[in-house]
Amino acid sequence: MTSVTPRPVTAYSDEHADVYDLIHTARSRDWAAEAEAIAALVADRHPDAASLLDVACGTGKHLESFGSRFRHVEGVELSDGMLRIARNRLSDVTVHHGDMRTFDLGRTYSAVTCLCFSVAYMATADELNRALRRMARHLEPGGVLVLEPWWFPEKFLEGFVAGAVAEEEGRVVSRLSHSVRDGDRTRMTVRYTVADSARGISEFTSYEMLSLFAAAEYEAAFRGAGLTVEYLEGGPNGRGLFVGVSPRGAS
């Protein structure tokens, strides 16, 4: 059966989750290398780090690699579709269903990560602050928070377009995106076409709103959560990384 009318879906719907790993591998994502680099950042600041929590862990690709660097890893994910895939991938890892603004796991970790610009789905600076405080509360004394931001306002490219095609046996997926500025947020339209040998051709479109927080807003959120903060240029996808450390005397 073939559907030719793009259907609107929410970000990280089941349809999106089912093609996420395939299409982003085609876009040259290397989750293992990213996890290795982030684990090294953590070890530099907390050599005895033994546990890690990945917030907005998606399909669990980073967690899969973090598991070889930390004795204990867990994840938190809001999307039901992503959560399903992560739990199937990581049968021996606990992946919690939760919102980064409100989750409470009742324990602390040596490191907390929030990658793939997931924090940019926070609609306001207040939500950003709430999320950072929640992550910081899950850090042990001396624990490390690593956060990947979305673009800063001055670095956003108006009208940016991107495309990718991915293939595996019995399935081809294409992804086209177009991003524009909408006030202090990015409005991104992403259209997917999926050709499946058993189900024919279908299309769906996701509409994503990503906040263009300034560097100073991220830094204020870290400090407001009681963490130190430093910004490292580059990072996994060119947007850099914010790294914070919890006070050694924290309880």
Strand content: 25-35%
Rg (CA only): 18 Å
Strand order of the largest sheet: 4-3-2-5-6-12-11
CATH T-level fold name of the largest domain: Rossmann fold
Question: What's the domain count?
Answer: 2
Low-confidence stretches: 1-10
Q: Kindly state the mean pLDDT as a whole number?
A: 93
> Termini separation (Å)?
58 Å
Output the structural class. Answer: alpha/beta
* CATH superfamily (homologous) name of the largest domain: Vaccinia Virus protein VP39
CATH architecture of the largest domain: 3-Layer(aba) Sandwich
Layout of helices and strands:
Layout: E1 7-9, H1 14-26, H2 31-45, E2 51-55, H3 61-66, E3 72-77, H4 80-89, E4 94-97, E5 109-114, H5 125-136, E6 139-147, E7 160-168, E8 171-182, E9 185-196, E10 200-211, H6 215-224, E11 230-232, E12 241-245
Parallel strand pairs: 1-10, 2-3, 2-5, 3-4, 5-6
Antiparallel strand pairs: 6-12, 7-8, 8-9, 9-10, 11-12
Helix pairs in contact: 1-4, 5-6
Description:
There is one protein chain. This protein has 251 residues and is an alpha/beta fold. The protein has 2 domains: 7-26 and 153-211, Single Sheet (S-adenosyl-L-methionine-dependent methyltransferases); 31-152 and 213-245, Vaccinia Virus protein VP39 (Rossmann fold). It contains 6 helices and 12 strands. It has helices at 14-26, 31-45, 61-66, 80-89, 125-136, 215-224, and strands spanning 7-9, 51-55, 72-77, 94-97, 109-114, 139-147, 160-168, 171-182, 185-196, 200-211, 230-232, 241-245. The strands form 2 sheets. Strands 4-3-2-5-6-12-11 form a 7-stranded mixed sheet, sandwiched between helices. Strands 1-10-9-8-7 form a 5-stranded mixed sheet, covered by helices on one side. Helix 4 links the parallel strand 3 (72-77) and strand 4. Helix 1 packs across helix 4 and helix 5 (125-136) packs across helix 6 (215-224). It is globular, with a radius of gyration of 18 Å. Residues 1-10 have low confidence and may be disordered. One of its GO terms (molecular function) is methyltransferase activity. Keywords: Methyltransferase, S-adenosyl-L-methionine, Transferase. This is Methyltransferase. It comes from Streptomyces ossamyceticus. InterPro entries: Methyltransf_25, SAM-dependent_MTases_sf.
